[in-house]
């Protein structure tokens, strides 16, 4: 899952925030406002959190699994 805050300023998504939400992320590029996580539930939590904290354009983009 790719979580993006499209049309928003980059967001600081730190380790403390992951711990607070209880989520695991693999790749984060906060400069571009992009987070990658293997877990759909985690992606949904992150998007809800972002929307509640001033990032109304946060979205989830599902990419097909690479083999």
Main sheet, how many strands, which sense, barrel?
Answer: 4 strands, antiparallel
The fraction of residues in strands falls at 15-25%
* Count of helix runs: 2
Read across the widest sheet, the strand sequence of neighbours is 2-3-1-4
**Count of extended strands:** 4
Overall form: globular
Topology as a string of helices (H) and strands (E): EHEEHE
| N-to-C CA distance | 15 Å
Structural class: alpha+beta
Which residues form runs of ≥5 with pLDDT under 50? none
- Portion of residues in helices? 25-40%
Number of domains: 1
Mean pLDDT: 69
> What is the radius of gyration?
11 Å
Brief sketch in words of this structure:
The chain is of the alpha+beta class and 67 residues long.
Overview of the molecule:
This protein starts with a strand and ends in a 6-residue tail after the last strand. The chain has 67 residues and is an alpha+beta fold. It has one domain. It contains two helices and four strands; from the N terminus they run βαββαβ. The longest helix has 13 residues, at 40-52. Helix content is 30%, strand content 21%.
